[in-house]
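Standup notes
- DV: blocked on the single-chain target, sequence here:
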Amino acid sequence: MFKALAEPFRQPFPEIELQNGAGGGRKPKAKAKNAAGTIRRIWGYLARRKAKLILVLLMVVASSGLSLLGPYMIGMAVDHYLTGTSGHWGLFLTGLGLVYVMYALTSWLQNIWMIEISQETIYRMRTGLFAHLHKLPISFYGKRQQGEVMSRVTNDIENVSSTLNSSAIEIFSSVLTLVGTLVVMLYLSPVLTLLTFLVVPLMIAGMRWITRRTGPLYKQRQNNLGELNGYIEETLSGQRIIKAFSQEPRVIRGFEERNEAIRRSGFWAQTISGFIPKLMNSLNNLSFAVVAGIGGILAVRGAVTVGIIIVFVEYARQFTRPLNDLANQWNTMLSAIAGAERVFEVLDEDVEAKDEGAAVKLDHVDGNVQFSRVSFGYEENGDTLSDISFEAKPGEMVALVGPTGAGKTTLIQLLSRFYDPSSGTITIDGRDITTIQRESLRSHMAFVLQDSFLFQGTIRENIRFGRLDATDEEVEEASRLANAHAFIMRMDGGYDKILQTGGGGISQGQKQLLAIARAILADPAILVLDEATSSIDTITEIKIQEGLQRLMHGRTSFVIAHRLNTIRQADKILVLREGRLIEDGPHDELMARQGFYSRLYQGRLEQEDS
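- DV (later): unblocked, structure below
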């Protein structure tokens, strides 16, 4: 039995201070954050309701004063009784009852009002964070797991919410009670006050020792929780791959490792912080014994009255109780600060570069696209694209081909301004795209990606995502052009069938058809197709070719192709290799050159034929 009880304590204390750094050095792993700065930022949200906060503080002051008045009245009544000057007991009991009723009322009002303020504050914080996420550049999401970001929007903000609902008021109330108790105790008996204070240094030392260790642990626990959420989101999204390769045991082991990290940090945080109430209760009992013992001796000698001893015994408890509450709430506050820091880390991320002051909104786009000596490189790599120059005339179909990693997708991301080139210029209809508002630029573009994403909602709503003001008739017409209308009508509910997030319940090919319908409805001037038919069977692909031709007619189209036999009709083919444009021209011309494209095309056909 004792072995089982001792087992949790055998686990290693989590490494929170240091970890191996580069080159064998040591560097902080859980670097202390600016707690004061974080609290100031939270106050910035709370300060918007200053009037209601003032009322809350007034109620806290009133309740703290009333909590001190009750014991004082009892002590004075005892002295009056012992001296034979009891007076009107009915009036005293009525007054005492009124004090405690008012105490309950002020406590209830401060809690209700603070909950209202905190919930509104969290609402603004969560709304601001969600809005900020949509202003961040694409590169932000490329460096983080979705689940880890979600953890900041949900778990971390909820942590702040629970603290604001209760801890903020309790901490302020505890401070006021401490100050008020100290003043009254000094007034009644400086000697007994000094005796009561003998345990305060021990309390402060114990609290300091504990909180210095629990703070980093709570921070690490929040980080571990974010990692676990990211891992869960990743594995749930990749269930088909996990099952296809029979990797369930490996995934479960990965979960257990991350879950164990949370268990360890949570165990030690709760265990160490659990010492606080035990320490406070022990010191509280010590203080009570000292006050009662020495106070009794002083009362016998006539230095103090029995009523004062009664008041001091109660005040001694009231003095240590706020200290106990402060210690407990401080641990909760540390956890909330850790969560708030993680939220503010995201809010401090640089948003997507703002449009220049003179950036214009385009009412019409012909679709003339020109790249002039464009180069670009991601931060962690070298140049992904180098000195790219070409022109796509209005209505032309431009195909982008090349090996994996050649820079095809990057080129499209530059055109849509998900990234800006490090050098060179990109123009649309002769205007540098950096002088065009991003929202306006992208409103004239439509994308059909290789892995099309569908939102939770009806089929009609997913198609209408391309143009929100489209009528039902226009939605259905776009579906007919994409050859999606027939399979939609065969489904229960038709256009009103509700799809799950990601399009669960329909095939990958059907998702692509809906994405094509969405692009048709958007009626863009510039169209981007990233192997739009890759997930569609051969028969379905043949059926939608006519729809795609109608979609691309009169529009500048960029087609990222891996199956080279699908882009023979392109007006221009751009051949990329290692970030450079090595060939361009129509299919027949490139084949006649017997260059890289010709070898790539013939090799791909041989693979397909085999």
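- Follow-up: The chain has a mean pLDDT of 78.
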